[in-house]
Amino acid sequence: QVQLVESGGGLVQAGGSLRLSCVASGIIFPFNRMGWYRQAPGKQRELVAGISIGGTTNYADSVKGRFTISRDNAKNTVYLQMRSLKPEDTAVYYCNAGGNRSVPGEHWGQGTQVTVSS
Fold first, then answer.
1. d(CA 89, CA 18)
2. pLDDT in tens, 38-71
3. Cβ neighbours of residue 21 under 8 Å, at least 6 residues apart?
4. Are 4 and 22 in contact (CB under 8 A)?
5. N- or C-end of the chain: fewer Cβ atoms within 10 A?
6. What is the predicted pLDDT for the residue at 101?
7. Bridge partners of residue 39, in order along the sequence
8. How far apart are CA 43 and CA 106, in angstroms?
9. Residue 21, helix vs strand vs coil
10. 8 A C-beta contact, residue 6 and residue 109
11. Which tens digit of pLDDT belongs to each residue from 84-107?
12. Contact predicate 42/106, CB 8 Å
């Protein structure tokens, strides 16, 4: 059974940094693609960043230059380094696996709350 477990969320002041981690278990081979999505209250879930097994990345325009996605295939782990955080980054962040650049995969983590205070 595939499981994605996120960690690293929390409360931070505007301008601060956080690093999210997501560990995948129950798989034999690394997922071709993993990504991070977020959902703020009253808004739809949106893609934040994605990364292929080869390391090709894509980002939402709103986080380009501030967030960095990376992965360690040997550890089945994907990371999201978030810098220069803004109050509008406040959301529940979800790890996702198995999708492509346009469509999320079927596997989701439970979510981790990121709150940025002004």
1. 11
2. 999 999 999 999 999 999 999 999 999 999 999 9
3. 6, 7, 8, 77, 78, 79
4. yes
5. N
6. 85
7. 92
8. 20
9. strand
10. yes
11. 999 999 999 999 999 888 899 999
12. no
Q: Which helix (H) or strand (E) holds 17?
A: none
Residue with tokens 């081979």: 29
For residue 1, give the nearest of 38, 29, 27, 33 by alpha carbon: 27
Task: Classify 36 as helix, strand or coil.
Answer: strand
Separation of alpha carbons 18 and 39, rounded Å: 17
Predicted confidence at residue 28, as pLDDT, reads: 81
